[in-house]
Amino acid sequence: MPSKVTPTKTAARGAALWVPPHPTLPKLIAASKHCEGCDLYKHATQTVFGAGPAHAPVIMVGEQPGDSEDREGAPFVGPAGRLLDKALVEAGIDRSQVYVTNAVKHFKFEERGKRRIHAKPNAAEIGACRPWLESEIEVVKPELIVCLGATAAQTLLGRNFRITQQRGIFLPFTQSKWIMTTVHPSALLRAPDPERRHEEYELFLRDLSAIPEKVSAIRLTA
């Protein structure tokens, strides 16, 4: 068996100042609303924390909230979230048993007229927000972490990690029994044509479809 992957080091500054001692999910959610660990809070509507069961067997981590999430205050409720919900059903995964969150808790965007266009968070913003993600993992204690997209994967596995080389592969991890990476559902929505979108969706579904069997195997060997 390969050795366990160790998460990269937490940034010394940032959200750590707002993370409460002896955290629970309700405490974390309440404290996150006041976070000023980076400048993103100045422009976002609100903090968008994770959501799901307190002891979910699976945590899915995306990049950051989108426009819909920022307005509604909940993760994965926009177009990418609806596509994820569809894929979870087809993969045989009970959405109510999955905790979903993001590496960054505030929406970073550029204004173009009346539209707010997603802007990729930088390394400093990701590092500043990481204590929230670490605390969520600590509290939920998942058996499997699924990284959706490069930002989530590199947050937990290091900047040199490449999804193109290791997507869909279960790796031993120090903060859960296993960690696996796949693309973010928003990447499917950006596919240039319907045929390519279908191909990418089938690959995404293939990755997700391996999760139920893996979780069942973990429980049988626990």
What can you tell me about this protein's structure?
This protein has one domain: 3-Layer(aba) Sandwich (Uracil-DNA Glycosylase, subunit E), CATH 3.40.470.10. It has helices at about 25-30, 65-70, 80-90, 125-140, 150-155, 165, 185-190, 195-210, 210-220, and strands at about 60, 100, 110, 115-120, 145-150, 170, 180. The protein is about 40% helix and about 15% strand. Strands 2-1-5-7-6 form a 5-stranded mixed beta sheet, with helices on both faces. It has a two-stranded antiparallel ribbon with strand order 3-4. It is α/β, with parallel strands linked by helices and about 220 residues long. It contains 9 helices and 7 strands; from the N terminus they run αβααβββαβααββααα. Strand 3 (about 110) and strand 4 (about 115-120) form a beta hairpin. The chain starts with about 25 loop residues before the first helix and ends with a helix.
- Give the helices and strands as they follow along the chain: HEHHEEEHEHHEEHHH
Q: CATH homologous superfamily, by name?
A: Uracil-DNA glycosylase-like domain
Q: What value does the average pLDDT take?
A: 92
Alpha-carbon distance between the two ends:
16 Å
Describe the biggest sheet? 5 strands, mixed
